[in-house]
Design a protein that fits this description.
Number of helices: 12
CATH class: Mainly Alpha
CATH superfamily: Chitosanase, subunit A, domain 1
Shape: globular
Largest sheet: 3 strands, antiparallel
CATH topology: Chitosanase, subunit A, domain 1
CATH architecture: Up-down Bundle
Length: 360
Amino acid sequence: MANRRAGRQTTDNLGTTMRSYPILTVALGIGLTVAACSSDDEPAATTIPTTQSGTVTDDSGTGGSSGQVDGGTNAGPAVAETQKLKAQMLTSFWENDTTVFQYGFARNNGDGYGYTSGRVGFTTATGDSYQVVQCYDLAFKGAGNLMKKYEPALKALYDKMIQSGSTQPNIGTIDAVGNYTADWTATANSPTLGPAFKECQDERVDLTYWAPTLPIMKKWGLTSALTRASLYDSTVVHGEANVNDLIEQANSDTGNGAQKSPAAPLSEAAESAWLQAFHIHRVALLDSSGAWKPAIARGANYEQMRRDGNFDLSKKIVTSANANSVFPGKGYPSNGYQACVINPDGSVSGEAQCTAPISD
């Protein structure tokens, strides 16, 4: 099955289409730990503990039953790791039709984002590919670094993007250096080169997409693992600016038109209502773009999980919801993803593609 990799973009104040790319070089006041990732040739996470708490925890692995993001320590680090892993496995599935992180994926999708590579689709046009390669060049000290030669060309594209405020789809300067996609794949799949390269991908995912969701959760009194998973996936696809717009719309729909942070965490019922509003607007946003419409089912799946009451991600997660069924009468397409099941313990069942080591 062909993947439904969504173009990830936002609109800046000048109307220029570009992917939002926050650069996080300062401490966020939270621990940034690398996720327990699956290898490229094994099904993802089959032995992690079952979730016990309905609340999301901070990234240091502490959290508890108080309902607060940074609550007590009753839940323990296993809960945080399990919730985080399931959230990131879901996004991997939406991106590559497999829950196994695709570190070696690399190709030109012809979508204006240059080369798209790695476990969440880092792109040469938006700069996150450059930051992965830069990290790797600093981390790997051995011989045979295949990616180092691309760093100057990637940096030039990145600098131009920052200066112009526009994505840089040109790949000519990269092609002049070598076979970028082949070298990316070879690096990820190499027993010698791969470990540091995968760690750099994990680090970039955490810094750019996962960690920024925690301050959002705290600001708006949100506590559930499902909400954080939905915010994370939305940030990967739509960029920070569009996610902020979705948050503002959800706030307004749930009685917070003044956009004021609550004095205390929302109740589960209030957060559920907020998340429903967020999903309604997100699915409409997915439907508004030709690049995003093929992936509209991913938005519907998070709403189905909310309706199932799977706020702590401890129930089975089934990936076969579609927007037309979840939001009938809206004229949304009925296309969906294959039926994969992420079980309570983090193991995956369903069609063979669900745990395929390499996406199609």
